[in-house]
């Protein structure tokens, strides 16, 4: 009896065990070398998470003003960029103590969750556990590892399968195409993590919605469920939309650094030769069997569209000429590949299942072997890339690199940012019409050697104090960033309209002797109300969602 129970449990969970093992092996060399990879966006996001961690640790919360990181300048980052997720990551950092543990755990979890999401998507369509498991591990091996640069492409890749679950329901469940709680929760989670992903995922769901609406038995109910989902999403993300409105209407802010969109497209080198061949076979198969399976043809067509959009085939040079703002906001068309890869893999799973169902043992084994080879080739590539970053992240034998190596292993995560100026211009106030690149030069110049001259102290109620000794009566530029709702007090007196440079750093007249400046950010009562609404909405909708899920499973069991 016990053996049968164990066997039944193992039959259900073995794919998840496989995902965990594969995810662990992916980062095993990094674990062995005990290396924290700090490249690309690592400093930017680690700074965000460190600030949130310090706020939690010191019970001194400041939703907008960054007091512990970003050179303690009072910049606004988390308030505009995934605030709740930043606090979640900050809490995890406090638990695991250092950046190495943090990176290993988060990389493992993101890879594991990505494969689980793809497995659930594939299983929902074809029902074949082995094929769905292979699709899950292929997906894990083809998305960018979080540790290899800490870019949010990895986060988007983790989330997109769960969004696709909502899309697949729209075209397969004609009775109730939209589960409004499910859709609202996943879109709410995405919004609290990465707003740009919301735009991509809405674009992804649009063709699913249109197709589902055509086939829905009750179109009015589908529209009504969509309306409920949108309204609930707005409640779950009330804090996000207020911040965005403030950013666009209340402030003039610098965008990220402008890039060439043609240079930011995906390359064929992103995939192994075998992967490309199999994807082409999938396309040929769908063209030949176009009318055989609507879902396969539909998903493959979407994959082709998003695949083309993420490459140089699409005229991005012409697009950026007519809409130059995209070079600073969207930046990299390769981001669209986070939609292409899961779509083509789901379609590949459908094709594999169709072939296996023909009961030809030799062909079925051939399909499984081919998918396994695709996984192994992609997996090998990802492991080699992670190994390269592991070896080369702090390769130079310099004093700075030795300091960084010690910092990522230290139980004080803040050591990583000592003498490090975060050079991203994102969300700096724009008081002069200059480029983002020039803004960073102005910002960096005024922060150079500021740590040796100014002492920083975080006060209660999210205020930031800097102090210094003045040798003469003269004007100096403070290493602080002032926004329209910022309040600056200098030597006990509130500074009204202080002269500010291009990036909002105030120029004030110091006194001889000790000087103290205190920076605070004043939030409105409306914002505090919206944060409360968002927090309560998460509690209520989560409890409701869990209750309805349990009820639905009980009903399904009773029917069986």
Automatic annotation (TrEMBL):
Record flagged with keyword Cell cycle: yes
GO BP annotations listed: cell division
Keyword vocabulary terms for this entry: Cell cycle, Cell division, Membrane, Transmembrane, Transmembrane helix
Transmembrane segments: 13-31, 76-96, 102-121, 128-146, 152-171, 183-210, 222-247, 268-288, 294-315, 336-356, 362-379, 530-550
Name this polypeptide is given: Cell division protein
């Amino acid at each position: 009896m016990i053996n049968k129970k164990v066997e039944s449990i193992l039959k259900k969970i073995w794919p998840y065990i496989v995902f965990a093992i594969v995810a662990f092996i992916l980062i095993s060399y990094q674990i062995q070398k005990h290396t924290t990879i700090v490249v690309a966006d690592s400093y930017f996001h680690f700074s965000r998470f460190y600030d949130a961690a310090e706020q939690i640790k010191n019970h001194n919360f400041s939703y907008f003003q960054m007091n512990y990181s970003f050179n303690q300048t009072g910049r606004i980052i988390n308030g505009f960029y995934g605030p709740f997720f930043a606090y979640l990551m900050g809490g995890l950092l406090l638990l695991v103590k250092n950046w190495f543990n943090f990176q290993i755990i988060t990389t493992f979890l993101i890879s594991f969750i990505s494969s689980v999401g793809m497995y659930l998507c594939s299983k929902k369509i074809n029902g074949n556990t082995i094929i769905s498991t292979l699709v899950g591990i292929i997906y894990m091996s083809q998305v960018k590892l979080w540790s290899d640069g800490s870019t949010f492409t990895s986060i988007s890749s983790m989330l997109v399968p769960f969004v696709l679950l909502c899309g697949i329901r729209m075209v397969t469940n004609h009775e109730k195409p939209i589960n409004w709680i499910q859709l609202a929760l996943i879109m709410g989670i995405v919004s609290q993590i990465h707003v740009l992903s919301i735009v991509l995922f809405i674009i992804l769901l649009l063709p699913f919605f249109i197709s589902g609406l055509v086939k829905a038995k009750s179109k009015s109910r589908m529209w009504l469920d969509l309306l409920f989902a949108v309204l609930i999403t707005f409640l779950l993300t009330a804090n996000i939309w207020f911040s965005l409105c403030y950013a666009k209407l209340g402030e003039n802010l610098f965008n990220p650094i402008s890039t060439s969109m043609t240079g930011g497209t995906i390359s064929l080198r992103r995939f192994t030769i075998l992967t490309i061949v199999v994807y082409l076979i999938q396309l040929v198969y769908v063209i030949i069997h176009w009318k055989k399976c609507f879902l396969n043809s539909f998903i493959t067509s979407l994959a082709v569209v998003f695949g083309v959009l993420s490459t140089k085939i699409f005229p991005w040079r012409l697009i950026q000429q007519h809409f130059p703002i995209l070079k600073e906001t969207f930046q990299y068309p390769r981001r669209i590949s986070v939609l292409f890869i899961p779509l083509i893999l789901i379609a590949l799973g459908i094709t594999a299942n169709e072939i296996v169902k023909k009961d030809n043992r030799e062909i079925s084994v051939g399909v499984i072997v081919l998918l396994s080879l695709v996984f192994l080739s992609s997996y090998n590539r990802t492991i080699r890339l992670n190994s390269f970053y592991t070896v080369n992240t702090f390769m130079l034998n310099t004093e700075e690199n030795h300091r960084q190596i010690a910092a990522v292993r230290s139980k004080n995560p803040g050591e990583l940012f000592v003498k490090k100026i975060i050079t991203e211009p994102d969300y700096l106030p724009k008081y002069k019409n200059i480029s983002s690149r020039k803004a960073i030069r102005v910002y960096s110049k005024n922060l150079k050697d500021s740590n040796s001259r100014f002492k920083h102290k975080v006060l209660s109620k999210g205020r930031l104090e800097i102090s210094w000794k003045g040798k003469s009566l003269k004007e100096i530029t403070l290493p602080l960033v002032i926004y329209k709702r910022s309040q600056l007090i200098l030597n006990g007196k509130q500074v009204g309209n202080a002269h500010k440079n291009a990036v909002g750093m105030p120029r004030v007249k110091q006194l001889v002797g000790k000087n103290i400046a205190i920076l605070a950010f004043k939030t409105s009562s409306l914002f505090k109300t919206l944060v409360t609404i968002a927090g309560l909405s998460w509690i209520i909708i989560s409890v409701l969602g869990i209750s309805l899920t349990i009820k639905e499973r009980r009903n399904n069991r009773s029917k069986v």
